[in-house]
Structures are given as structure tokens and as C-alpha cells.
Amino acid sequence: GQQLNQSPQSMFIQEGEDVSMNCTSSSIFNTWLWYKQDPGEGPVLLIALYKAGELTSNGRLTAQFGITRKDSFLNISASIPSDVGIYFCAGPGNQFYFGTGTSLTVIP
Amino acid sequence: KAGVTQTPRYLIKTRGQQVTLSCSPISGHRSVSWYQQTPGQGLQFLFEYFSETQRNKGNFPGRFSGRQFSNSRSEMNVSTLELGDSALYLCASSPGQYMSSGNTIYFGEGSWLTVV
Predict the structure, then answer these.
(1) C-beta of residue A63 within 8 angstroms of C-beta of residue A32
(2) Of A60-64, A97-101, B96-100, which one has max mean pLDDT?
(3) Which of A36, B30, B71, B108 is deepest in the core (most CB within 10 A)?
């Protein structure tokens, strides 16, 4: 099935640095969702975007719904060790499509 | 509001056996979907149920099946287990069907299946 292209695949950053990742699709989406998954756990919803151009924050997280409706961005400011995990985007079509994931490692 | 609950959390089965996994969605959610997650393949869609009807099915063999009950609880079954079926099986619930704009899905913690 369709997969969303997510980049980067992995990131190794120092604690306190900002992080940016993005997701692109060949199709238009009406909703973009961002999840975080810790090892051995289910994904947890971080931010939901429902409108093109929308910019939404959740604490240190900020996500944007691209104007073309084919992309979305997630930023994490001032990273901390507990930000470690895999982040992935998702969008609904005739099923839910998921990004390939960005693995984030935060070095204290 | 309780989240999505999946049972069992961990299980080990032998090749050739069958397994049933259970999912209780968030109260009021009528759509339940199932996913297989493996390190190499990421999240793979298995199927989706809405109001007890299978609405969509992913590209998995017929050994994988599911159903939804009138209270929206769902089960998935894998028969004749193979080693490659070892994975984290995730259930997600949603208030409405996928194609509805503004839909959001919420995941359970998953069931870890190991086939030996």
C-alpha cells in the first residue's frame, strides 16, 4: 500500500537542540497526524492537523499542515532525553497510511 | 476516558498453532483497525471494522481474520502460525470511518506475538 515518505530516517542530537522532520505524500490528505512510539509500546498521538496551512503546538512540539496538503512538518524544540523514540506521520485515505518513521536519539 | 485495551500483552506460540487477540476500543468509538508492526516492514494495515462490518482489508493471507462485535470490541485471529508472524500487533480505534475528514485514530499498547 501507499507509504508516506518521511525524513530523516534517524537523528542523533545533543540535549537542548531543536529537531525537524517532515513527511511527504504523492496524494492529498485532509488530515495529518503525528505519533511517537517508545520501544515495545503502542504509538501515542502527539498532534493532529485538520486544515491546510494549520500550525499547531503541543508543548515543545509544533507541527504544520503543508499548503499543498501533500506534506507536513514536525518540530521539537529544546530536546530532552525522554524525547527518544520513533516519530511517524499518518494520514487517512481508504485506510490509514503511515510514514516510515524517524528514529530520534538524544545524547545527554 | 479509558484508552484502547489489548489483550494479551505478550504471548508465545508454536508454529502451526492459532492465536486470537482481543481489542476493546475507546468508549463510543465504532471503528477498529488492526496493524502488524515488524522492524523491517513498519506498520502494515491488516483490516478495519466499522459497525461489525469489515470495511477494508490489507494485503495479508487468509490466515489472518478478524471480527467486530456489537459492542465494538474486536478480535483478530491468525491460524497456522508461521515464524514470520512474530510481530507487534496493534489495534486502533476511531470515532468514525477512515474516509471521514478529521478522523483520528488512537492505538492500544499492542500484543507481542512470538512464534517459535
Answers:
(1) yes
(2) A60-64
(3) B108
What size, in residues, is chain B?
A: 116
| Phi/psi of residue A76, nearest 5 degrees | -120, 125
Phi-psi label, residue A94: left if phi above 0, alpha if psi -120 to 50, beta otherwise: alpha
Residue A98: name the closest of A38, A53, A32, A18 by CA: A32
Measure B82 CA to nearest chain A CA, in Å: 21
pLDDT at A108 over 80: yes
Distance, CA of A66 to CA of A56 (rounded, Å): 12
| Span B3-48, pLDDT tens digits | 999 999 999 999 999 999 999 999 999 999 999 998 877 889 999 9
| Best residue in A96, A98, A103 for a mutation probing chain B (most B CBs within 10 Å) | A96
| For range A55-60, the mean pLDDT | 96
A-B interface: how many C-beta pairs under 8 angstroms?
63
B53 touches chain A (CB under 8 A): no
Question: Which is nearest to A107 in space by CA: A41, A9, A10?
Answer: A10
Q: Look up residue B95 and give its amino acid.
A: P
**Are the C-beta atoms of residues B100 and A29 closer than 8 Å to each other?**
no
